[in-house]
Amino acid sequence: MPPTGTLGRRGLLAATGALLVAGRASGGVPVGCGTPPCAFGPTTGWTAARAGLEAILDQSLLPFWRGVADASTGEGYALNHDLTGRWLGPANLAVVAQARMLWFFAHLRRHGRAAPEDAQRAERGYAVLTRRFVDPSYGGCFWQLRYQNYAPSKADKQLYAHAFVLFALSEHALVTGSAAAAAAAAGVFEVIDGRFRDPASRNYREFLLRDWSTPPADRKDYLGGVGGIRTHNTRIHLLEALTTHYELARSARVAGRLAEVVGLTERALVRTPVFCFRVTDGGAPVRQSYGHDLETIHLLLRARALLGQCGDPPAFYGKVVDDTLRLGEDRSLGGIFDSGPIGAGADALAKKDWAQAETLLTLAELFRLTRQSRRKSAFLRTLDWVGRWQVDWGQGSWYDTIGADLKPSGGKAGPWGGPYHTGRAVLGCLRLIDVIQNTPKGGCTPL
C-alpha cells in the first residue's frame, strides 16, 4: 500500500499540474515542465536517459552555476540566491558551500566537461579556502566567515567541514597537478587524523572548540547535534573525502583510514524491521532518511572499488535500496520522499533535490554492477520526476524542495544549496551510462 498521503496523487496532479505550469506565463513560479506532453520524458532507455542528463547539465546546471561564480566579487563565491535564482545580497561565507563550489569546477575539469574559464572559477574557491578559512592560531578550518572582512564568525571546528575541504582540495590537486594544492589537502588530512580521530576507539569526534578543547556537554555543534553525538551524515562525507584523497595520496595510512571508515559505515546498518542506516549512533533508531540511505550505497561502492574490493556488492547493499524504494519512493509521480519512521513508510513527503540526485547515482551504479532490470526501471522513473518537476528549466539549477502540493520552496544557493549533489549525480550518471552501454556487468572502476 502506498504511504499515507500518496493516495490520490494522480488526482492532485490533474487538478494542479496545469495551473502550476501555467505559472510560467502568468507570473507565478513555474515548476519543471510539468505533466505529459512535457518536453522531458518519458525516458525509455539508456540512450534517452543520456540525452535527458545532457540537457539538464547543459541547459540548467552549467549556465546557472557558472553565472553565480562569474557574478561573485571579493573572495570566494557569493552564494545567497532565492527560489528563482535572484541574488539577495551579501551573506557570510560558509566553508561547506565554498568547498562544494571548488569541487564542482575541479570535477568538471577532471572529467572533460569544463570550459576554459572553469579553471579560474575553481581558483576562486581554492584561494578562499587556503587563505581565509584556515585558522592561523590553532590550525584547522573555520565554519563561517563574515563577508565584510573575512573574520571568523563561527570559529569552532566541525569534522563535517573538514571533510568537505579535504574532498575539494584533493579533487583540485588531482586535476591541476598542483603541489601546493596537494600539500594543502595533506594538511587537512593530518588535522582530521590528528585532531578528530580517536585512536582508542578508531572513531571520530565531530565537534571541538576553536582551540581543540572539548565543548560543554550541552553545547550544540553547527549541525545541531549535542553532547558529542556522531552522525551518519558526517561519516559518509568523511568516507567520500578519504576516497578522493586516497586517489591523490595513495599512501598506506590513507588506505587504512578509508578501510576503517568503510567498516564504521557498514556497522551503522540497521537490519530490522528494514535495512537502513542509523541517522545517529547510539539508542534505538526511529527514522529513515531515504536520501542518505541511498547515498551511502554508492559512496561505499566507490570506496570499495578504490580499495580493490571488487566483485558483487554485499547482499545488504541491495536490501537497503529495495527497502528504501519500497517505503520512500512516490510510485505515482516518481521521485523519493524525504523521510519516515523506520519500516512505516514516508510521512515527510517533500522531495529534496539532493535526495533525487543520490537516488539516480546509486541506481545507475547498482545496475552497472548487477544488470538487474528493476534498478534500471527505478532509475528511469526518478529521472522522469527530476526532468519534469525538480529541474528549473527557466531560471536554472534545480528546485531545492518540491512539496506534496507540487509547490517549490527553498533557495538556489546559500550555506547548503549548490551544485555538489546535483552536479555529481548528473556527471556520474553520464559516465556510468557510458560503461553500461559499452561493457559487461561488474567492474572495479571507481566512477
Keyword list:
447 residues; mainly alpha; three-stranded antiparallel sheet; 14 strands
Provide a descriptive summary of the structure in words.
With 447 residues, the protein is mainly α. It is built from 13 helices and 14 strands. It has helices at residues 9-26, 46-71, 95-110, 118-131, 159-176, 179-196, 232-249, 252-266, 290-306, 315-328, 353-370, 373-390, 420-438; strands spanning 93-94, 144-145, 152-154, 157-158, 197-198, 203-204, 207-208, 269-270, 276-277, 287-289, 339-341, 351-352, 401-402, 408-409. The strands form 6 sheets. A 3-stranded antiparallel β-sheet has the order 1-2-3. The chain has a 3-stranded antiparallel β-sheet with strand order 12-13-14. A two-stranded antiparallel sheet has the order 4-7. β2 (144-145) and β3 (152-154) form a beta hairpin. The two termini are 36 Å apart. The model is unreliable at 1-28 (pLDDT under 50).
